[in-house]
């Protein structure tokens, strides 16, 4: 009886450790997703073209091509998308520069992300 309780306790400890690991992983995914959504919101506020945004997304998906999708790939895609969005030149322009040339924001040839 005592041996059975010890084994049951060990199984419960392992399950708890797996749950904690999954909680941490999901927390990282949530944090990364929030960062990506914030960058997308900033780009939307700056009137980035749908074409430029589509190119960023396609570039991200192309660079993360993997024949065996899994949990790690999700975080990799979010990381890559965040890097692609962060590298977008439109986010690095000065506010004065944007205010002086609002027409350039709508031209997808001027914006290279």
TrEMBL record:
For the keyword Coiled coil, the answer is yes
Q: Which residues form a coiled coil?
A: 2-46
The scientific name of the source species is: Polioptila caerulea
Q: Which domain of life is it from?
A: Eukaryota
What is this protein identified as? EFCC1 protein
Q: Which InterPro entries match?
A: CCD48 (IPR031601)
| Keywords for the protein's UniProt record, in alphabetical order | Coiled coil
């Amino acid at each position: 009886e005592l041996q059975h309780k010890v084994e049951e306790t060990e199984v419960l400890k392992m399950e708890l450790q797996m749950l904690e690991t999954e909680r941490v992983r999901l927390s990282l995914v949530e944090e990364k997703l929030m960062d990506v959504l914030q960058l997308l919101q900033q780009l939307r506020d700056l009137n980035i073209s749908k074409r430029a945004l589509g190119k960023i997304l396609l570039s991200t998906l192309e660079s993360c091509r993997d024949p065996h999708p899994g949990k790690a790939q999700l975080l990799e895609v979010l990381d890559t998308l965040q890097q692609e969005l962060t590298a977008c030149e439109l986010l690095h322009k000065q506010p004065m520069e944007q205010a002086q040339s609002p027409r350039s924001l709508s031209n997808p040839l001027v914006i290279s992300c």
